[in-house]
Design a protein that fits this description.
The complex is a heterodimer of chains A (464) and B (62). With 464 residues, chain A is an alpha/beta fold. Helices cover 39% and strands 13% of the residues of chain A. Chain A contains 16 helices and eleven strands. Chain B has a domain at 7-43. Chain B is mainly alpha-helical and 62 residues long. The chains are: A alpha/beta (464), B mainly alpha (62). The interface between A and B is medium-sized, with 35 and 31 residues.
Chain lengths: 464, 62
């Protein structure tokens, strides 16, 4: 068996009966045992459950009853997804002993697709407050350099996928929590269109900005995982009642003819990124030109406008969710979460309403800006991953976020690795699509990934 | 950056929330409050009177 497999590769080998789901699962469990004392990506491994799932998958496949491309694939869930009978904590002392009765919809759908569940993954506290060192569990570490940050909040998923402990996993994204870890851990991670994937049974942070989605090694893998989690769910009031497309259908179409609009002022003027980050985005655009894409610059409102609108809504909605516990168990939260969210309690109701009025105008503005292009291009993170001890407490609020604009608009957005910086850590760009245009987004991301060498490199720590 | 709001006025805000903050915690949040003031200033630029919110009420509840 190869040292590292993508989901697409493993799926083909399993279908051809050249790879045993039990052996694949055992190799992931061995890797967890070897590396996770350093990475802290798992809050709770579930090896017995994993091997039971793997044996069941193997029996189905050997009996000619495969459930499809995810049957027998080792995954894990961010610890804000409810798992029946398995502790779900939000990485918080407040839910240290919480054992849900039911699976979240996405957990159930992946289980029905035949995935093998290896456990529950680290997150920032309640998907917001990290990296924290005052919680019952330590923060996840970046496999490219464990002294460095994974970004968050889907930090455990980012670390575990990059190190090959799992082949894919769930994340959630309220202001960038899938795309950030995907970027800093060198993965692919998609925040799907708002309403495409159910949020039912997932601990909420901000009702109107929360998205569920997958992280994996490649865009193709994300497409396969999204296929297993998308679809209407009557238990989620925001769920979109519309047919689910084939997310892999356009992967082979290449980038020829795609029209890319670069929101250059976001990352050059409004919030200038590191030179290497910008240079790698420009090199990626050169790749797209060679592949036959058309590229132009697009100008929209300054990123500070999007950031202000997004974070006001986020903090107010999160405060409303957590207010009862903030009033009674304030000091049971980690410092980062409680202080960031407490600010939401000081926002006037009329200012929140103005923010959601502004949000609609920003959505209309983006729709108009995308009329003549298929995909937008921007940054995900300003630099390579910083040392984890140096992440500023107020960093997510002080500097404009490159990702929250597309939580505001609900558009699908994917992080794509663009290479490695001077510190040897991953760099990334963000591709943004029109609502429910995930197949085109996967097409563009896959075209770039297959035209470049970056998917061939894994963290040295995991390869040793 | 110094907050535009006075410490006394901020104390009233804290009182209204009912959060059980220590003096140190209140001071920390007071120092961070300019970030909220800056965000509020951006979203409260004048809007057309007819600008509807992004979240609209629908009579059919799912």
């Amino acid at each position: 068996m190869a040292e590292f497999l993508t989901i697409a590769e493993a799926s083909r080998l399993i279908a051809d009966r050249r790879l045993s789901p039990v052996e694949l699962t055992q190799s992931c469990l061995d890797r967890i045992g070897r590396l996770d004392d350093v990475l802290h990506s798992f809050l709770l491994p579930t090896p017995e459950r994993a091997l039971a799932d793997a044996r069941a998958a193997e029996a189905r496949i050997m009996g000619g009853r495969s459930r499809g491309p995810l049957d027998g694939i080792p995954i894990a869930h961010k610890d804000i997804y409810n798992t029946a009978g398995i502790r779900t904590t939000g990485h918080s002392k407040l839910l240290e002993d919480n054992v849900p009765q039911r699976d979240s919809t996405v957990v159930r759908k992946w289980a029905e697709a035949g995935t093998v569940m290896l456990g529950k993954l680290a997150t920032h506290e309640f998907a917001m407050g990290g990296p924290s060192f005052d919680l019952p569990w330590p923060p996840a570490r970046n496999p490219w350099n464990p002294a460095h940050f994974t970004s968050g909040s889907s930090s455990g998923t980012g670390a575990a996928v990059a190190a090959g402990l799992i082949l894919g996993g769930t994340g959630s994204d309220t202001g960038g929590s899938i795309r950030g870890p995907a970027a800093l851990c060198g993965l692919s991670g998609i925040k799907p269109t708002y309403g495409l994937c159910s949020r039912s049974g997932v601990l909420p942070l901000s009702f109107t900005l929360d998205h569920t989605g997958p992280l994996a090694w490649s865009a193709e893998d994300c497409a396969l995982l999204l296929q297993g989690m998308a679809g209407y769910d009557p238990e989620d009031p925001a769920s979109a009642d519309r047919p689910v497309p084939d997310f892999t259908a356009d992967l082979a179409k290449g980038a020829k003819g795609l029209r890319l609009g670069v929101v250059r002022h976001f990352f050059e003027k409004d919030h200038p990124v590191a030179d290497t980050t910008r240079e790698h985005i420009d090199r990626a655009l050169d790749v797209y030109r060679k592949l036959g894409a058309e590229i132009r610059d697009i100008t929209i409102s300054p990123i500070e406008d999007w950031h202000a609108c997004g974070f006001l809504i986020l903090t107010v909605e999160a405060y409303a969710i957590h207010e009862p516990w903030l009033k009674t168990r304030f000091n049971d939260y980690g410092e980062l979460f409680r202080d960031r969210i407490a600010l939401g309690g000081f926002v006037r109701a009329s200012d929140y309403v103005q923010a959601i009025r502004r949000r609609r105008l920003l959505c209309l503005e983006l729709q108009e800006a995308m009329a003549e292009v298929d995909i937008l291009v921007s940054a995900v993170q300003p630099t390579e991953a910083p040392p984890i001890e140096q992440v500023p407490k107020w960093g997510t609020l002080e500097k404009p976020s490159f990702t929250i604009p597309f939580n505001l608009t609900g558009c699908p957005a994917i992080s794509v690795c663009t290479g490695f910086g001077t510190g040897g850590l991953p760099l990334a760009m963000q591709l943004i699509g029109k609502p429910f245009a995930e197949p085109m987004l996967f097409r563009a991301a896959h075209a770039y990934e297959t035209a470049t060498e970056w998917r061939g490199r894994r963290p040295p720590l995991a390869s040793a | 950056m110094k907050p535009k709001i006075s410490e006394a006025a901020f104390a009233v805000l804290v009182e209204q929330t009912g959060l059980p903050l220590t003096a140190q915690q209140r001071a920390t949040l007071y120092e961070a409050y300019p970030m909220v003031e800056a965000m509020v200033a951006r979203v409260t630029q004048p809007l057309p009177r007819e600008a509807e919110p992004a979240l609209v009420f629908t009579a059919e509840v799912r």
